[in-house]
Specification:
435 residues; 2 domains; Aminopeptidase; elongated; alpha/beta; 12 helices; 8-stranded mixed sheet; 8 strands
């Protein structure tokens, strides 16, 4: 099959080069991302498919893109603790008020982190600056226009803010340690704020000499704990503020993540248009570039919400292609650890078969360890979904950094990824013949 696909794999790599080198960074909602959608639309028209672009409004920094805010929140909490403790030495009510505000702020901060950063909920989007992104797709239907099911092929068009910890080219272990220190520091600061609130409010509103003495001793101890620990916790929280670089000029050019996914999705539908005899019977194929994936899967979330009742998701299968570059790390991603869903078992099995038939001897079998992928919204919407990747699962110097360039990996890896996806589409067709 490699010979049949050579022209298409060469074109896929050229598309990756164009996205990374000619367009460059494509942060969620920015002009670069819009240009890539326009380029994808033009490519669809070149092969006789009519593209459709759907725009949606989202908040780039409301999810994982805003994680540095948690670090700044930890620093602010540490400052409030010191102010509350010092104020409490002068006036118990002032100290209680400041510690109450600090504790409340810490709780709200963690609610946002858990729901928006870790669980990708859109509930807090209204609190952040809004931008516009897009989903662009085109469909290939059988010659007679009749189909029984749909296969979606998707890759995300946007790129990530540069991850400073990785861009420093430290060892993966050291990178995890720095991020871990930041997260633990913010957690300890919030816990300390809750303890300070209880003790300072107890002292301010004590109704007996015994309570006054008890809470007074506790606040004396906390005075020294806060005085000496808060600066250290603030320094630790600062590690999270370095999670990503705000300057868009040094954002990731996104060759691997994820121009490869978009290019492979496009070349797959082009291959089946040029070779209808190799396409599954009675199958509609839709290739799509999802926007704002790096901002919390906003493109795929908005797509399934927009089409949940119009029939587009009925009898559907979804192949998400996300980062095809590391030749020794082809893997089937069977779920998202943060977002909980397990992807379809039949799709997982077919993906393994497709990889082995493509000559990949021992494909990996992992759950997405950090963040999420566009399979999750489709799977939650009832679409059988899977993600295929070829990316080192460890945090590397090129993951979400300005070093994610096409020159880093070989054209043959993209070719292998294309073959895997083509074979997987055909396997879905074979499975449908038995229904």
């Amino acid at each position: 099959m490699q010979d049949q696909l050579k022209k298409y794999s060469d074109e896929a790599y050229e598309m990756v080069q164009f996205a990374a080198n000619d367009i460059g960074q494509r942060l969620p909602g920015c002009d670069g991302e819009k240009k890539f959608h326009e380029h994808l639309s033009q490519k669809f028209r070149e092969i006789g498919l009519e593209p459709k672009t759907e725009k949606f409004i989202f908040a780039p920094r409301s999810s994982i893109g805003g994680l540095p805010y948690a670090g700044w929140g930890g620093i602010m909490l540490a400052a409030l603790l010191v102010l509350g403790t010092l104020g409490g030495r002068l006036n118990a009510q002032v100290g209680a008020a400041l510690h109450f505000f600090a504790a409340l702020y810490g709780i709200v901060l963690w609610v946002w982190v858990i729901l928006s950063v870790f669980k990708y909920k859109t509930w807090f989007d209204w609190c952040f600056k809004q931008e516009v992104s897009h989903n662009t797709y085109a469909q290939l239907t059988p010659a007679d226009g009749r189909y029984d099911y749909t296969v979606y092929l998707s890759g995300h068009t946007d790129t990530s803010w540069t991850l400073k910890h990785s861009a420093a080219k430290g060892s993966p272990a050291f990178i995890y340690i720095k991020i871990g220190i930041g997260a633990v520091s913010v957690g300890l600061t919030t816990a300390l704020a809750l303890v300070c609130m209880v003790c300072s409010m107890g002292l301010a509103f004590a109704t007996s000499a015994e309570q006054l003495l008890s809470f007074g001793r506790a606040t004396d101890v906390l005075f020294y704990v806060v005085t000496f620990c808060s600066p250290a916790l603030a320094v630790g929280a600062y590690m999270l503020t370095l999670y990503n670089e705000k300057n868009p000029r040094v954002a990731s050019p996104g060759a691997m993540d994820n121009a490869t996914g978009v290019a492979i999705a496009y070349e797959t539908i082009k291959f089946f248009k040029d070779n209808p005899d190799l396409a599954p019977a009675h199958c509609r194929i839709i290739a799509m570039g999802c926007g704002a994936e790096e901002a919390g899967l906003r493109g795929s979330i908005n797509f399934v919400r927009a089409h949940k009742d119009d029939g587009m998701l009925q009898n559907a299968y979804h192949i998400n292609i996300d980062s095809i570059a590391d030749k020794d790390h082809f893997e089937v991603i069977h779920g998202d650890a943060w977002l909980c869903p397990h992807f379809d078992k039949d799709m997982t099995a077919m993906a393994f078969e497709a990889m082995k038939e493509a000559g990949i001897q021992k494909p990996g079998d992992i759950a997405n360890p950090v963040g999420g992928c566009d399979s999750t919204p489709f799977q939650k919407a009832g679409v059988k979904s899977i993600t295929v990747a070829a990316q080192d699962p460890a945090m590397t110097y090129y993951y979400h950094t300005l070093y994610d360039v096409p020159e880093r990996f070989e054209k043959s890896v993209v070719a292998k990824g294309l073959e895997v996806v083509v074979r997987l589409v055909q396997k879905i067709g074979e499975s449908r013949e038995n229904i």
